Amino acid sequence: MNTNRSLASFMLHKALACYFLSAVFVFGAMLVFFFENQKDIQSEEARMYGSFIARKLQNVSATSLSDLVSHIDKMGGAAQSHEFNIGVATKSTETLWLNKPDAATSQPLREWSENISNVQLGIITVTVSAPLTPVYDAVFSKALSYLAILTAQLFLLWGLFKFLVVRFLRRAIQTLSRDLEVLNLKNPTPLAGDPILSGFSEYRRILVDINRVITSLVLSRNQVEKMNEQLEEKVREKTLSLEEKNETLVKLNQHLSTLANTDSLTQVYNRTRFDLLFRENVAVSQRRQTTLSLLLIDLDDFKKVNDRYGHQIGDQVLKHVAQSLTETLGKNGILARWGGEEFAVLLPYFDEQRARGMAEILRQSIDTAYFEDQKIHITLSVGVAMLLADETGNQLLNRADVALYEAKESGRNRVVIAKHALQKQLTFEDLSDPR
Ligand SMILES: Nc1nc2c(ncn2[C@@H]2O[C@H](COP(=O)(O)OP(=O)(O)OP(=O)(O)O)[C@@H](O)[C@H]2O)c(=O)[nH]1
Questions:
Q1: To the nearest whole percent, how much of the chain has pLDDT over 90?
Q2: Which of 271, 360, 365, 371 has the most C-beta neighbours closer than 10 Å?
Q3: 56 CB within 6 A, ligand 1
Q4: CA atoms of 97 and 113, how far apart (whole Å)
Q5: How remote is the C-alpha of 306 from its chain's centroid?
């Protein structure tokens, strides 16, 4: 079905077709009635004409048919408008029909009169038949005038229907569709429709139905919106609680990571973390061929501190020393508690000389400090070693440790640079045990 068809013009065509069919039926019936009427009139005329001829001929005294014919001729054109038969009964009672209704066998009156000239006339009978041709002509002209009337009516109806009904319908539909177009479901107002058409019950009913649908749409929309809001609220709550949990988890993770990597007493990196950083830095230094130095630091005569002030004070001194070393070192290197009263410092991009300088600064910073209410003074011994070409991390550690040992041996509170070659190679595991 063509969806672009206009409802109004569809109805117009239907209405015109209905009118055409009914008009054809009515006009047909009128034509039949007219035809019958005309036939009756013609028959009556013929009958009257027949009796007129018969009356005239009764008064004529004719001795032969030719004589009769001459009388008929004298009657003039009256005989021309109707077909008529004249029956003449002779004295022998035989009836001769001068003009028969059957066209195939009828003979003109004159020819008969020539042939039967000696016939004695008796009773004369006249029958006149009405020809249908004029009736047909009348009916045809009537039909033509009906057709003209019908055509004119159709055009008139078409114009009127278009002007009144089609315009009306279009207006009804356009008003509705315009109202629906601007309809805002967030803030709906009932459709008012066309003010004139609203007076009709069908139109009002459609409006009521549409408004009912709109109301239920708005209700559903509000419900969906409410559900959406509730859902969003729940999602927000869940997200918040997840974010809180996530934050707690992150903090816990950070705490765990700090615990795993930090020495609990001094809050500097522990041995585990240092081992990892040490291996990474050695690998980077070897790959990029950059300098890397290591300091091994041991507190001098720490046992005496413990013995004199107690283990707890010893702990506090260890904390202060670690804090002081961290501040002095800044971002130049990585400080870790190596174990017991020993610390290690990793110095990326530091060559031997710079490492020695840093070791000296660290040593002096402790040497010039006094801890625990200025009562405790402590010193450091430092072994310095720089990573050599083709040297492993373990070999670097060995050399630094030997240098530290030498610093101790040579009187403590000093910095000793490691020799570049060692006679005895210690393993990494040897150095792992706290001394
Ligand atoms: N308070 C405290 N003392 C510790 C800790 N770890 C190791 N020590 C002590 O550090 C001391 C180390 O003693 P030693 O190995 O003899 O070394 P030292 O006394 O420092 O002598 P040198 O290293 O030769 O100068 C021991 O008394 C250990 O108990 C600790 O965490 N806290």
A1: 44
A2: 371
A3: no
A4: 11
A5: 81
Report how far ligand 1's centroid is from the alpha carbon of 303 (Å): 5
HSE of 416, CA atoms in CB hemisphere, 13 A: 24
* Residue 249 shares a structural domain with residue 394: no
Give residue 101's pLDDT.
Answer: 44
- Rounded to whole angstroms, how far apart are CA atoms 321 and 362? 10
Q: Which residues of the chain have pLDDT under 70?
A: 1-7, 53-54, 57-131, 422-435
Interval between CA 343 and ligand 1 midpoint (Å): 12
CA of 435 to the centre of ligand 1 (A): 9
* Pocket flag, ligand 1, residue 298 (CB < 6 Å): yes
Q: What is the pLDDT of residue 79?
A: 45
Q: Which of 45, 232, 243, 341 is catalytic?
A: 341
Whether 326 contacts 332, CB under 8 Å? no
DSSP code at position 184: -
Would you say the CB of residue 318 lies under 6 angstroms from ligand 1? Answer: yes
Q: Are residues 241 and 287 in the same domain?
A: no
Whether residue 279 sits in one domain with residue 233: no
Atom of ligand 1 at shortest range from CA of 302: 20
User: ipTM score of the complex?
Assistant: 0.98
Length of the chain: 435
Burial of 190 (0-12, 13-18, 19+ CB in 10 A): middle
In a domain? residue 52: no
Query: Which of 261, 292, 325 is the last residue in one of the domains?
Result: 261
Phi-psi group of 289: left, alpha or beta (phi > 0 → left; psi -120 to 50 → alpha; rest → beta)? left
| 294 and 390 both lie in a single domain | yes
pLDDT confidence of residue 41: 83
d(CA 31, CA 146): 9
Total-model pTM:
0.52
In terms of domains, do 283 and 383 share one? yes
Catalytic residue flag (residue 341): yes
DSSP 3-state of 90:
strand
Q: Which domain holds residue 318?
A: 271-432
